[in-house]
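User: Hey, quick favor. My workstation is busy. Could you predict this chain's structure for me?
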Amino acid sequence: MTRWTRGEADIERMLTSGELQRVRGEAADGTGWMEKATTTLASAEELKAGDPNSAYTLAYDAARFACAGLLAQQGLRATVSGGHYAVQQTVIRQFGSTFEPYGTMRRRRNELEYPEFPDEVVETAEADRAIVAAHSLIDAAGKLLSHLSLF
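Assistant: No problem, here it is.
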């Protein structure tokens, strides 16, 4: 299997800048991340009616785990300096617009995590939309995983 070439220059730049790092061995296997994504999303679904804020955050986490699985499968990992934004940029540059909802979810999750006012609320409908988006991202990542090799 050959290296995924779409977005290759961007990934090389992110490796050079320290936003991404290479991993090897067992860390270069995305299947555990996909399993974690699925489990976390199930928890989000359970919480959405009673705690939509937490359900949104868990849906975001599930989407992030799926995206991290794509990176891991390629022997890549976001660093502390790259963080969640590096995950976002990597998946969008490599795999396209299918992964753009992750960016929207990341920004909203930051609003919830670092609110301007303590009463920031997520309505159940918004949590539902996040869960649907996370399902879509997990499904897309699952379809790609077996086609990826080390970067």
